[in-house]
Amino acid sequence: MFEKFYSKRIKNTPSSFIREILKVTQKPEIISFAGGLPNPVSFPQEELKISMNRIADKYKAKIYQYSTTLGLDSLREYIVQRYKKIWNMDIDIENVIITTGSQQALDLIGKVFVNENDRVMVESPSYLGLLQAFNLYEANFIQTKLNDDGLDIEELKKTVKIYKPKLAYLIPNFQNPTGLTYSLENRREVFEVIKDEDMILIQDDPYGELRFTDDERLPYIGLNQINKNIYLGSFSKIVTPGMRLGYVIADKEIIKMLETAKQASDLHSNIFGQYLISDYLYNNDLDKHIEKIKKLYKIQANAMVEAMKKYFSKDIKFTIPKGGMFSWVTLQEGKSSVKLFEKAIGKNVAFVPGNPFYIDSSKDVNTLRLNYTNADENTIEEGIKRLSEALLEI
Fold it and tell me: Which domain holds residue 337?
């Protein structure tokens, strides 16, 4: 009825595959490995309740009023100090803008940088939220293959040489969807390839704090420098996702442009949530809280890995997570993860087929993403058992 009125951008942008799947998984009988959902038991509910009362008493009407686009100064300053402490990053408050989750950060970056047919290099596979966000701005995506230790360096060299991308979007820590982490050597090699290129590197890091092995924390590509780097972070995975609070760290000039784009989008992110999260961070030990999350997720990840070893055939491959929230499964050659999904739903278990993580989402693939953080050990084993039964039917 309204087809002729819609913009070309929106008509060419598919709806979020995961959001559509999550509608299906609302039935209580379905075991869902589909969403990237933090475990609700990890939410610091009592501490947040205390913070709610404190900000209501301390700030009164301020927490209900309009606020500044860049975000609450105390929250931005917390981010500055944390990145200085952990990464020795040379930044100040003017290098930070608060966003409505990392997803808005991606949308704002698309608004600021992407013109029609601008080339954007992404991993293969890549985060489908980025693909959807930049699709709206009609980006021309160039995918570069991921190996077990990070980007395929030879393919990266060819991509950079042939296509000269304007932007590169990478998730170096516990990548979504694969769960893989770039090795230190791979990070160095990636930097050597791109350091002299006329390109902005976006490093998305919602999962980096969730390393549950004893491996040391790895620096960002480019050794934590600002330069032509844009860093994305989020409180969704380490405090609570419902407040929808993320942030961007970048050169001050870029932050000013993002501020202008954000003014046109929503004026400012939820200020009540900003006061709440800021108060929580200043009055609690975030690192101690993160340790609890990591211990929980390690148990859940191990449960999924052991269940897959027990129920899957030996020729099915999967990543063994060292952190983050996902494992990436590769079925036998010729098998379809979409067909598997159809069979699995019939057995009341859900996951995300691999298709939407690639540029050509219509192509049938033999890969799929499993989330382990939103189910207990017994539920994980039962879900993997059902999935193995569905595998016998495709």
Answer: 3-44+288-391
Our CA angle for 360, 361, 364, nearest 5°, is 100
Question: What is the residue type of 206?
Answer: P
Q: Are the C-beta atoms of residues 180 and 328 closer than 8 Å to each other?
A: yes
pLDDT, tens digit (0-9, with 9 covering 90-100), for 111-162: 999 999 999 999 999 999 999 999 999 999 999 999 999 999 999 999 999 9
Among 263, 283, 303, where does a domain finish? Answer: 283
Phi/psi for 204 (5° steps) reads -95, 130
Dihedral in degrees, nearest 10, Cα atoms 95, 99, 103, 105: -30
pLDDT tens digits for range 207-253: 999 999 888 889 999 988 988 999 999 999 999 999 999 999 999 99
Please count the structural domains in the chain. 2
Peptide bond into 125 cis (omega under 30): yes
CA angle 84, 87, 88 (to 5 degrees): 50
> Measured in whole angstroms, how far is the alpha carbon of residue 361 from the centre of its chain?
19
For residue 172, which of 163, 183, 161 has the smallest C-alpha distance?
Answer: 183
Output the domain CATH number for residue 370.
3.90.1150.10
CA distances from 100 to 54, 317, 346, 352 (A): 23, 36, 36, 24
